[in-house]
């Protein structure tokens, strides 16, 4: 199962947590908290039970989460297969509107040929994808119109 990011805002800044309390607060296993301690989470002191200050825990988790982020520079979209920002193949991008004024950019990765997506406002397309050919497509059809009537009807026809 893939690792998930823990929300550091669940930790109260001015509270001390034991390993069990911190694990319960963040909905992780106790061994995860001990692993974080080995990776640099500093306890209040060397005594037992091991206690952690909430502000130190929040700082540790915030730094840990931000180190995993890979922002996309202009002209790139994030490829989930390559796990890094990549330029679109042949510089071609499709814009699929989702709402008035915004939508998804869709392109093919230049390395692994996976479809990549990026959420963008329509007015920011020139800044986000400079030098790329952007083709505007139709949005997804909304639910409208009438459905076909059911042929399995129990009503008896009179007349």
Automatic annotation (TrEMBL):
<dbReference type="InterPro" id="IPR009061">
    <property type="entry name" value="DNA-bd_dom_put_sf"/>
</dbReference>
<dbReference type="InterPro" id="IPR041657">
    <property type="entry name" value="HTH_17"/>
</dbReference>
<protein>
    <submittedName>
        <fullName>Helix-turn-helix domain-containing protein</fullName>
    </submittedName>
</protein>
<feature type="domain" description="Helix-turn-helix">
    <location>
        <begin position="17"/>
        <end position="64"/>
    </location>
</feature>
<dbReference type="Pfam" id="PF12728">
    <property type="entry name" value="HTH_17"/>
</dbReference>
<dbReference type="InterPro" id="IPR036388">
    <property type="entry name" value="WH-like_DNA-bd_sf"/>
</dbReference>
């Amino acid at each position: 199962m893939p690792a998930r990011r823990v929300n550091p805002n669940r930790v109260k800044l001015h509270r001390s947590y034991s390993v069990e309390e911190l694990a319960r607060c963040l909905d992780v296993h106790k061994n995860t908290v001990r692993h974080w301690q080995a990776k640099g989470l500093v306890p209040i002191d060397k005594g037992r039970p091991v206690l952690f200050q909430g502000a130190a825990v929040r700082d540790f988790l915030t730094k840990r989460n931000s180190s995993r982020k890979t922002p996309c520079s202009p002209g790139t979209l994030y490829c989930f297969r390559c796990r890094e920002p990549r330029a679109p193949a042949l510089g071609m991008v499709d814009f699929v509107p989702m709402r008035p004024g915004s939508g998804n950019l869709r392109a093919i990765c230049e390395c692994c040929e996976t479809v990549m997506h990026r959420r963008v406002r329509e007015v920011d397309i020139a800044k986000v994808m400079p030098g790329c050919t952007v083709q505007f497509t139709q949005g997804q059809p909304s639910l409208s119109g009438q459905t076909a009537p059911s042929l399995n009807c129990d009503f008896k026809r009179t007349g």
